[in-house]
Amino acid sequence: MKGPKKNCLTPKEQGFCDDYLATGNGTRAALNNYNVSGPHNASVLASDTLRKPFVRQYLEQQSEGAAERVVKLSQNARNESVRLAANKDILDRAGFKPIEQTDITSQGDKLKFYSDEQIKRAANEIINANSNPSGTNAGDVGTASQE
Predict the structure, then answer these.
(1) CA distance 89 to 7
(2) 140 and 124 Cβ atoms separated by less than 8 Å
(3) CB–CB of 41/47 below 8 Å?
(4) Which of 17, 99, 122, 128 has the maximal Cβ count within 10 Å?
(5) What stretches of the chain show up as alpha helix (H) in DSSP?
(6) Interior CA angle at 55 toward 82 and 32, to 5°?
(7) Are 72 and 83 in contact (CB under 8 A)?
(8) pLDDT 10s digits, 72-113
(9) Dihedral, CA atoms, 8, 13, 14, 17, nearest 10 degrees?
């Protein structure tokens, strides 16, 4: 039976953490440091390892050098999308994050603003057209009497 767990990382956990910090890829870090058969098992092991309290504590302590690692990734990563993401992160941290805007218009068209009276008239036209196809007025929206 094993004794109580000490407040430290095993050599494999240490290697995993160092690789994870260098690449940001848990699956790759698990493949490099554990005896696992295939990427699926490595992914599961990476997820489990990242949940361990001592591993999380070590990663948090090492996060102080994260900015330097992001800069290195932006310059040296093999994958172009990793370099792009690192550069975006650097710009975000420097205050150059673009303003996020959502286009709530239809296909980029500008919104048209209508007065209350224009909206009431349009509503009455729709109501009258749908409820009384013969052309007689069925009633008006928002008015007491017909003009």
Answers:
(1) 33
(2) yes
(3) no
(4) 17
(5) 11-23, 26-33, 39-50, 53-62, 66-76, 80-93, 116-131
(6) 55
(7) no
(8) 888 888 888 888 888 787 777 676 766 666 656 656 666 667
(9) -120
Question: Alpha-carbon distance 21 to 29, whole Å?
Answer: 9
Q: Which residue, chain included where needed, has tokens 């068209």?
A: 109
d(CA 91, CA 108): 28
Contacts for 55 with CB less than 8 Å, ≥ 6 apart: 9, 13, 16, 17, 49
Angle value at C-alpha 102, between 101 and 106, nearest 5 degrees: 140
Tokens of 32: 């490099």
User: Distance (Å, rounded) from C-alpha 73 to C-alpha 19?
Assistant: 13
Which of 21, 23, 26 has its CA nearest to residue 49? 26
Coil vs helix vs strand at 63: helix
CA 73 to chain centroid, in Å, comes to 20
